[in-house]
Amino acid sequence: MLNKKMLLSVLIVGVVATVAGAGTWAAFSDTETSNDNTFTAGTLDLVVGGVGTSLPLTVENVYPQATGTIGTISVENAGTIDGTLSLKIINIVDDENGVNDPESKIGDTDAAGELSSHLTIYANGNVVTPGTAMSIGALGAGSNQNIVLTYAVDDADNSIQTDKTTFDTEFTLDQA
Known about the structure:
By secondary structure, the chain is of the alpha+beta class.
């Protein structure tokens, strides 16, 4: 019994010493603050028609089976965010631009031209479908790219003589 009392006394002294020691135990600590943290939005800024571009582009005297270059358009991502570039042919307008004798002999007498229906436009060698956005590819922040527009006229008849087609080329730069 004496052993039990002694063991119990030693145990109680050990618990009290542990609690007292834990209460006085301390560790070093330091806290600092990072001030004036800032978020700034980047920019996506497309510039069309830089150095080497003469706008608007004009091609004259096209004829059946003609091919050629419309021109080169320089585009630049002047922003700070990488983007993906696409283009679209929009606002196509056909103008008869007068009816000459060969046109009238085949019955072409209306005011609307037919040239655009016989014309295919290419951007960097790829067909551009009017009204549909065509991906050109990545355009990194601060970089530029030249887009070469070419054309081909199919086997049209005399109905396209004197016709004039105008259109807009819409470029879009989306965040990558």
